[in-house]
Amino acid sequence: MNPAHPYDLILFDLDGTLIETAPEIADAVNDTLRELGHAPASEQQITDWIGHGTRELLLQALAQAKQSAVEAERQSSGFAAIEARFGQHYLQRCGSRSQLYPQVRQTLDALRAAGVRLVLMTNKETRYTEAVLQAHQLHAAFDRVVCGDTLAVKKPNPAGIQSCLEQFGVAPERALFVGDSSIDVATARNAGLAVWVLPYGYNMGQPIEASAPDRVIDHIGALLAPAPALQF
Ligand SMILES: O=C(O)COP(=O)(O)O
């Protein structure tokens, strides 16, 4: 137990919580669609597909462009090659139009200095997550990174959280999830954790308040600000 902070472990979502990634994801999707001879999708539409991992987002984009079904795209023999091509575009775009949200770096550093264990828990696949973290020099900020393909299941399955609680020897009531979507809220609830959310992120076009988080905070720095609910 860490007397300096009400939580011993904080798990963070990535896209829309720590880093604004949607603009360059949209660029990479549209690079791919154009190459295939399809019309581009709007940045807002692509933003609303964020949440279940980059492969799912690409499948949604292809299905919309071709007026087909997501499952038909998933089963298509050409999908592996399209995904590989998308990957090249995305890795090239990484860092071009993404940016850390306010106070992210300082807050992560301060929490770490206070002895809080920090985990990044994203549905984004490992190769893309690593590229984004590298582009923003954020790879050393976390004690563990759990991506959409790290385990056999991803958010909202609680297995990732449970694995971190076990690894760091932390009880659920001493851990907090910080995210931006109903998927994050469901993940936290499935593991019995408190969950705070940022309203500026990506929640599939829905207001995040509707998923009933414990707190809505304006910026990540609120994790450090004294609040009546917190015993600093
Ligand atoms: O890649 C996605 O679709 C979601 O990523 P996130 O879990 O960091 O929001």
How would you characterize the overall build of this protein?
Belongs to the HAD-like hydrolase superfamily. CbbY/CbbZ/Gph/YieH family. This is Phosphoglycolate phosphatase. Specifically catalyzes the dephosphorylation of 2-phosphoglycolate. Is involved in the dissimilation of the intracellular 2-phosphoglycolate formed during the DNA repair of 3'-phosphoglycolate ends, a major class of DNA lesions induced by oxidative stress. Keywords: Calvin cycle, Carbohydrate metabolism, Hydrolase, Magnesium, Metal-binding. With 232 residues, the protein is of the alpha/beta class. It has 2 domains: 9-21 and 98-223, HAD superfamily/HAD-like (Rossmann fold, 3-Layer(aba) Sandwich), CATH 3.40.50; 22-93, DNA polymerase, domain 1. It is built from 9 helices and 8 strands. The protein has helices at 22-35, 43-48, 54-66, 70-75, 79-93, 104-113, 126-135, 159-168, 182-190; strands at residues 9-12, 19-20, 99-100, 117-121, 144-146, 175-179, 194-197, 215-216. The strands form 2 sheets. A 6-stranded parallel beta sheet has the order 5-4-1-6-7-8, with helices on both faces. Strands 2-3 form a two-stranded antiparallel ribbon. Strand 6, helix 9 and strand 7 (194-197) form a beta-alpha-beta unit. Helix 1 (22-35) packs across helix 5 (79-93). It is globular and about 55 Å long. Residues 13-16, 50-54, 57, 122-124 line the site of 2-phosphoglycolic acid. 2-phosphoglycolic acid is lined by residues 13-16, 50-54, 57, 122-124.
